[in-house]
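Table 4 source record.
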Amino acid sequence: MSSLQQLAKFRAPSQLRMGGQLGRCPSCSFSPPGAVRASDLGRSTTEKAISPKLTCSAAAEKSGSFAFTRVVDTEGAARGPGTGPVRAQQMATGDASDPRIAGIAKSIRVIPDFPKPGILFQDITTLLLHTKAFRDTIDLFVERYQGKGISVVAGVEARGFIFGPPIALAIGAKFVPMRKPNKLPGPVIAEEYSLEYGTDKMEMHEGAVEAGEKVLVIDDLIATGGTLGAAIRLLGRVGAHVVECACVIELPELKGRDRLGDTPLFVLVSSA
């Protein structure tokens, strides 16, 4: 069962509560007060994967096409998996006491009902407005990867383009953009990856990364892990070694790290 399909499970109908219009499960006719596409949580780019139609967990197990989100807020505010206020996560270095992490978490704004009703969007633009939090974010990544022999920082479209270049400059690596189809001029190589209802592609320039190079892949957020997984495979095809994937935010309930294979994942903060 995929990580997206696992989201279809819930404990009881009374726990289902999200913003949006009333719907009816086509399998059992249960009508919860709204649901949200799981892959829209915190991101609205290429990981759109679950039908906006409603169904219960039994139907989802059969079709693999639907998901509900469940209430976890004690005050009744709707919240989906991994979409609450971000919190400091245990870092891969074992140092969760670094005060910079708490400052970064506080600087990330959560926007309700964007881009659709029922979604709480993890907005990193407020982090960019907070110069100390932005600098601390870059510094934490640089401190981790400085002196590790990394020659390439690959940024995933689009917000990986924000964090990737300053990290690359600081550690003496080149920056390689990994883009959606038909965005890069000249010869490219592409990697296709699966969505729930189709496929998408990620592209990079031919010759941008050479065999044997050590690569850091960076994005702002990991949700289902589809785009990061595609980046790892694409870089592997040219013989590069992905040392690690790094993100500012993780939505752990979407289990995106499960799609990264043996490649380690490093994140600064995690959604509550």
